[in-house]
Design brief:
- The protein has 10 helices and 8 strands.
- By secondary structure, the protein is of the alpha/beta class.
- The protein has an 8-stranded mixed sheet, with helices on both faces.
- A hairpin with a 2-residue loop joins strand 1 and strand 2.
Length: 304
């Protein structure tokens, strides 16, 4: 595999800027650094509206597409290792998905660790998704066509929500998801340093997320790959996107294989020259546009 030129340029830009390693940062500083990259996602596509709504006690953004009276719904869960990131920071991707898939997107601003360790984030995301399934019609949405999706840690939470809600959902879109918190797959070491997300960074994330909880990294409540096949087979159809130069590459591929083996319809797409995080960097990495369109096409098919 060859690293994409635009991804390589982005990585060099970070080196030149003297960006401190994530694992040497305090959460508050890491959040500020992550938020500073939000403009690299662009403005997002033109949509009908973006509003704020509290759903079952959880703050969310609601993005509605143009010219769709009663749209299907994607509940989107942002990445950031359960520690950083926000609904606000992922608006560009949400607008792009809403416009391309013709769906409303509800972006969840779930509670972050270490202030709120596991399972707080999952509780928030599951509560919002369940409300959409049961009450989405009350705000003009098609509650019979609901999908869940997310990137990185958001992909982890989306996969867990899909396992919990089963056939109440029509699809799950997982973008380079964290599915095995034991960090034991070969790509964790193969891509341990130099590609934005590092092995040390993942250890920092998992440490903050599980600290003081008594939850093991390999427990099925936090690691979807540990879920038994008989439970996995009740999950919604899936699309899984992975990147070649990503520490999480192999676990994402393993989860797609596990879903398929359990009888779940699943499509895997690899972007071999890309790095973790590229999906949200459309301004700097043009291939992000192709990735977003691929996910949108899968969602459109599931909503049909």
């Amino acid at each position: 595999m060859t690293l994409d030129n635009s991804a390589a340029s982005f990585l060099q830009m970070l080196v030149d800027a003297g960006r401190p390693p994530l694992h040497e940062s305090a959460p508050v500083d890491a959040r500020a650094g992550y938020d500073a990259m939000a403009p690299f996602g662009g403005e997002g596509a033109d949509v009908d509206s973006v509003s704020e709504l509290t759903i079952d006690g959880v703050p969310c953004h609601v993005i509605r597409p143009n010219n769709v009276v009663k749209p299907p719904v994607l509940v989107w869960i942002h990445g950031g290792g359960w520690v950083i990131g926000s609904s606000e920071g992922s608006l560009a991707v949400c607008k792009d998905l809403a416009a391309s898939a013709g769906c409303a997107v509800i972006s969840v601003d779930y509670r972050l660790a270490p202030e709120h360790p596991a399972p707080a984030a999952l509780m928030d995301c599951a509560a919002v998704t369940r409300w959409v399934v049961e009450h989405g019609r009350e705000i003009g949405l098609d509650h019979s066509r609901v999908a869940v999706g997310g990137d990185s840690a958001g992909g982890n939470l989306a996969a867990l929500v899909a396992l919990e809600l089963g056939d109440a959902l029509c699809h799950q879109a997982l973008v380079y998801p964290v599915v095995d918190l034991t960090l034991s797959h070969p790509s964790i070491d193969e891509n341990a340093e130099g590609y934005l997300l590092t092995k040390a960074g993942m250890q920092w994330f998992v440490g903050h997320y599980l600290s003081g909880t008594g939850i093991s990294a390999g427990d099925a409540s936090v690691s979807p790959l540990a879920v038994a096949p008989e439970r996995m087979r009740k999950s919604a159809s899936a699309s899984v996107l992975i990147a070649g130069f990503d520490p999480l590459r192999d676990e994402g591929a393993a989860y797609a294989a596990a879903l398929a083996k359990a009888g779940v319809s699943c499509e895997l797409r690899t972007f071999p020259g890309q790095i973790h995080g590229f999906f949200s960097l459309r301004v700097l990495i043009p291939e992000a546009g192709d990735a977003i369109e691929w996910v949108a096409e899968r969602l459109s098919a599931a909503f049909a």
